[in-house]
Amino acid sequence: MKNTAFVLMAFAEAVAAGQLAPSRPVPALTPEQTLDRRAVGDRTAGDLEFSPDGSRLLFSVGEPVKAAVRARAIWRLDVTSGQLRQLTFSGKNDTAPRWSPDGESVTFVSDRDGAPQLYRLSMRGGEAEKLTDRKEAVGAYRWSPDGTRIALLMAEPKPEALQQREREKDDGRVVDKDNRRQRVWVLDVASRTLKQIGSGGWRIAEISWTPDGSRLIAAASEKPEADQWNERIYSIDPADGRFTQIAAPRGPLGELALSPDGKTIAYVGARVDGPEAHDLYLQPIAGGAPQNLTAPAIDRPISQPRWIDNQSLAVNVANGVRSAIAMLARDGRVQMLDGVDVNPSLFARSSNGTFAYVGETATLAPELWIKPPNAPARAVTAFNDKWASIPVVAPEFVKYKSADGVEIEAALLRPEGAPEGAPHGDHADSTLGAAYADGTPKGAPHRDHANSTPGAARYADRTTREGRPTRRSQPSALSHSPSAISRHGRPLSSSTAGRRGAGATASSRGGSCSSRAGTPCCIRTSADPPATASASSR
Length: 538
Hints:
Structural class: mainly beta
């Protein structure tokens, strides 16, 4: 804290004495500009999907936020020609697009008429038709392989007693007892009839059909009231609703994906109980011990497993403060996807090997990219082209050793006009910028590594070695989305330990810095961690 305060005072004195040459003023990045950006794809809904023949791609686009609402629309890309077409125009939240198995229609969830319901849109033209018409919201859903049924998650109808309490304005609730959790339902597409599968107090997080359509695979908890990670992997018989346990891995777990032959379930799980899923596991559907595929080969946070064939998968990898796409074989071999110069978040892979992904950097807003086999990647959308003219500071990536010798990667944000090559080692506070670490070694105390982070901001956090818990985040937003750090472009004044200085704010989706000429965009000490800091061991 004392060092930081001293550096700030020295900087102010140097400016007053004319020791630092004035630099060209940088236009302030306004709050309105930070909100004027479109969201490409929806990570929660996983709405990036190739058609069965790989020729077309579905995705959603969220319009800039207005008040507390973000409207989303479904779009379609012709992969070969690059032609884009908007498919829905409701002005509401249209999301989770899925191709029917025959590729003739598209389903999606929309709140255009009240609670989110399931709709179908024919690719031959016409208006979207409503497949479900309930007061309860439709959650995750999956087409059966033969295209005759759709499994979905939705709560049971409200009992009469609860409806009566609501009419009487009685908002009292009994914890656990009054919770209305989602159930599994199966929709017969031709007749529009819904059938509830199973009952009881289950909490069901995910569902997926087996390739033969005979069963559903689910991540569920039989005792959701327990304050612990107790999700298990189950097989559900659609005929009688019977749950059969397949495996009881350590929690949390999620992102179930079945191999094409239906013999293996890939999922992202934890080595010990929590705090977050980190590694990729392969679980035989017939039972037995799971295989941790990534711990020995690529010790990085994994997400979005996508089967390529029965022997390999594609995954998203958090690599330092950046992200990448990797192909993993069952024998542990790893191959990174070449030619990807942006940070991919949501991604999909077609049967012919073409990748589609939403990519961004600290200075480039998110757009949709296509990477064909043996061809360079190209951006196929320009939804956020306005951001090309907004001056944001690109981070400088720094690697250094922590106290125990583990390599850490940090992102250093220099103020506009700072001299190139300014030191950022032991005397990094003289940089008058902001450094965010994304590289806490697993199992190391946060305070030790936070103090070893170069730059004025000394903070690190991500995961642990051998499962010792810390907090984990997605690949650092520093390398992803541009956003304002200085408040309304005002210069940053001095700060004391544990308290932000007047006029300073930390970016909630960091990765850029915009401040007036010669002023640091943010300064942090070990007692005042920035909101964007995150870490992963190298």
